[in-house]
Amino acid sequence: MTGPKDNDRREATSVTITAFECSPDGGKGLARDTRVRWALEEVGEPYEVRLLSFRAMKEPAHLALHPFGQIPTYERGDLALFETGAIVFHIAEQHAGLLPEDANARARAITWMFAALNTVEPPILELVTAKLLESDKPWSKERMPLVEDRVRARLKQLAARLSDADWLDGAFSAGDLLMVSVLLRLKSSGILDEYPNLAAYLARGEARPAYKRAFAAQLATNTAKTPAG
Ligand SMILES: N[C@@H](CCC(=O)N[C@@H](CS)C(=O)NCC(=O)O)C(=O)O
């Protein structure tokens, strides 16, 4: 039976995340709230979203939640978290489905979470920065091949390890969720097509119903309205 008390309790423990009111990518799913939405969808945890303008992200109320004034954050009851890696890890710890039960397999899946964020994402972000923010610099044309080759070096290693497997280490895990999320940033560059098994890996991630729901939810936010001002 559900009475007012049950509703109150559910309210108090419901998950709220933050996202851009208007994502710079216009809804391509590259803002990092998509990773958190995806993790929550994978484990079947409902969530609310608080949308923030760039100005609100730098104001004291949000800085109290996120010291660097960024999105996403995660709040549940009196717990507030920032950093997508930590948030996805927390979700995976709270629910079955994103980390294996076996201790060693679990440790390996967590290793892939770190590898995605610490080893594979940095050169990809460097490429994104070079294209978006530095393409007008006089040295940009000369530097770009170097930046692209650093991405290729990592992709080659990752492709060799993945080989013809579906996922990085057995069943789909939070490590795959973060790795696919990181690789998504390369989709428009064409570089991923040089590594057919990685392109197929990405497509497998995007085909997951939970990813589709997460993507659709962030797209709906970003196409719903243009904020005033
Ligand atoms: N390492 C952080 C990075 C967070 C981050 O860069 N968030 C971006 C959106 S994807 C942001 O808020 N950018 C706006 C800003 O830094 O002012 C994480 O993984 O959560």
Topology diagram in text:
Blueprint: H1 4-13, E1 15-20, H2 33-43, E2 47-52, H3 54-57, H4 60-63, E3 73-76, E4 79-82, H5 84-94, H6 103-133, H7 140-162, H8 174-183, H9 196-207, H10 209-224
Parallel strand pairs: 1-2
Antiparallel strand pairs: 1-3, 3-4
The chain binds glutathione.
> What's the rounded overall pLDDT mean?
93
Largest sheet: 4 strands, mixed
**Beta fraction of the residues?**
5-15%
Helix content: 55-70%
List keywords for this structure.
alpha+beta; binds glutathione; 9% strand; 4-stranded mixed β-sheet; 229 residues
Give a structural overview.
The chain is globular, with a radius of gyration of 19 Å. The termini are far apart. It is 58% helix and 9% strand. Strands 2-1-3-4 form a 4-stranded mixed sheet. The chain is built from 10 helices and 4 strands; from the N terminus they run H-E-H-E-H-H-E-E-H-H-H-H-H-H. Glutathione binds next to loops.
TL;DR of this structure?
The protein has helices at 4-13, 33-43, 54-57, 60-63, 84-94, 103-133, 140-162, 174-183, 196-207, 209-224, and strands spanning 15-20, 47-52, 73-76, 79-82.
